[in-house]
């Protein structure tokens, strides 16, 4: 059994890529995730007699021998098919345009930086002389226009424009595209935009004008990306970020929009565990502090160091530590002398806690400075192994709102990695 699939929260570029793949691989079964972009859902409700797709639950995973993945290069963004990640004997064919290194190892790759993934597939359709119906051409053009911002995003390539011209030659209908690509902007979106503008602020980071806005949400709201895009345009900044926290579900939705090449939004969102394009990206984070997310975004933009592959290449060592019987007064002195914000607490060679500057806020009187560190230290210490990646470290720091991670191997602390260390890695991924 051969399957075609794409990322969750499917947009028009992903949908068009699945349809194009169905024409390139006619024996394959196209499968769409459960979560779809609202405009895509509306399009499919009208065209369900023309385009038919299976749902992930309808597929017997054990029967799959070939998997065609389009418009995504990350297992975690697939609906149900991520379970095949470590399964041997499955042929993987990958079509992706993001230009970012992912974790899907494929047998056949069609990976190339492009404004839209659909453009890569139109190239192959054209080379194979596969005929397109007007509705197919219209859907493919919608995919290109959506991901390139009508060919106005900085990520747009000349070939995107050539592909658009080819689809217009095949009678793609611009009026249909205009009706479905028109963003949904109603009362909810207007109220959110108004709240964002009331608390709007600008900052300069590495010479760029950036606005980061945090807002609590109540209930589900569609088209937040439209709100962030409008917010960026109104604020007239190089990049804008919306951090939308949903306390009931315990998650943060992060959406970013960039208007210049220097701030690659896809790479920034990759650092938060999400993804996207140079001009647009998003990430979903669970159980995180919005303030910590903001700090991560700032650090991702500010970072400036050599790239690395493993934690062991980035960590600082040997590690300066203190014993649990050290007084808080001595600990404060060491923190000042070392110029750091936290220290691991080690007893008999084992990590037993972490003391940081924020722990000193627990002290209510000067006399308590004589108390031992073990009375105030954090004992639930988040650690990481030396073979893990900087991205995994960054995700842990965001999730647990910590600025440093002890690196532990065989129950021994062999190093420490900080938030700024991980940012050095991500910044190096930015294109020259």
From TrEMBL:
Organism of provenance: Desulfatirhabdium butyrativorans
Positions of the CBS domain: 315-373, 377-432
Keyword Iron included in the entry's annotation: no
Name used for this protein in its record: CBS domain-containing protein
Keywords on record: CBS domain, Magnesium, Metal-binding, Nucleotide-binding, Nucleotidyltransferase, RNA-binding, Transferase, tRNA processing
SUPFAM superfamilies: CBS-domain pair (SSF54631), DHH phosphoesterases (SSF64182)
Cofactor: Mg(2+)
Family under the similarity heading: Belongs to the tRNA nucleotidyltransferase/poly(A) polymerase family.
Alphabetical list of InterPro entries matching this protein: CBS_dom, CBS_dom_sf, DDH_dom, DHH_sf, DHHA1_dom, tRNA_nt/polyA_polymerase
GO molecular function: metal ion binding; nucleotide binding; nucleotidyltransferase activity; RNA binding
Pfam family, one: CBS
BP term (GO), one: tRNA processing
């Amino acid at each position: 059994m051969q399957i075609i699939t794409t990322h969750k929260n499917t947009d028009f570029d992903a949908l068009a890529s699945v349809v194009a793949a169905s024409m390139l691989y006619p024996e394959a079964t196209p499968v769409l995730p459960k979560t779809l972009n609202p405009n895509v859902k509306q399009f499919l409700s009208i065209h369900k007699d023309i385009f038919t797709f299976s749902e992930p639950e309808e597929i017997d995973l054990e029967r799959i021998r070939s998997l065609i993945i389009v418009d995504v290069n990350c297992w975690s963004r697939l609906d149900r098919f991520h379970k095949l990640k470590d399964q041997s004997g499955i042929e993987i064919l990958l079509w992706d345009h993001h230009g970012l290194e992912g974790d899907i190892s494929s047998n056949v790759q069609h990976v190339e930086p492009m404004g839209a993934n659909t453009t890569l597939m139109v190239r192959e359709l054209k080379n194979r002389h596969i005929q397109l119906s007007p509705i197919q051409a219209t859907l493919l053009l919608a995919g290109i226009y959506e991901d390139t911002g009508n060919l106005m995003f900085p990520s747009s390539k000349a070939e995107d424009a050539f592909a658009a011209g080819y689809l217009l030659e095949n009678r793609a209908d611009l009026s249909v595209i205009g009706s479905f690509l028109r963003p949904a902007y109603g009362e909810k979106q207007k109220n959110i935009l108004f709240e964002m503008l009331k608390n709007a602020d600008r900052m300069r980071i590495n010479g760029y004008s950036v606005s980061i806005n945090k807002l609590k949400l109540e209930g589900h709201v569609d088209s937040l990306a439209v709100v962030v895009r409008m917010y960026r345009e109104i604020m007239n900044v190089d990049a804008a970020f919306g951090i939308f926290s949903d306390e009931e579900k315990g998650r943060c939705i992060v959406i970013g929009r960039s208007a210049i090449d220097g701030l690659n939004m896809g790479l920034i969102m990759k650092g938060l565990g999400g993804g996207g394009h140079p001009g647009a990206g998003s990430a979903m984070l669970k159980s995180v502090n919005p303030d910590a997310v903001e700090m991560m975004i700032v650090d991702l933009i500010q970072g400036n160091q050599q790239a690395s592959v493993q934690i062991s290449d980035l960590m600082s060592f040997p590690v300066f530590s203190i014993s649990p019987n050290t007084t808080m007064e001595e600990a404060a002195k060491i923190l000042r002398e070392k110029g750091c914000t936290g220290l691991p607490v080690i007893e008999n060679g084992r990590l037993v806690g972490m003391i940081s500057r924020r722990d000193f806020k627990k002290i209510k009187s000067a006399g308590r400075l004589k108390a031992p560190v073990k009375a105030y230290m954090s004992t639930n210490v988040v650690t990481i192994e030396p073979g893990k990646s900087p991205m995994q470290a960054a995700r842990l720091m965001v999730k647990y709102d910590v600025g440093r991670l002890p690196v532990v191997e065989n129950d021994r602390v062999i190093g420490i990695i900080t938030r700024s260390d991980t940012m050095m890695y991500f910044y190096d991924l930015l294109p020259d």
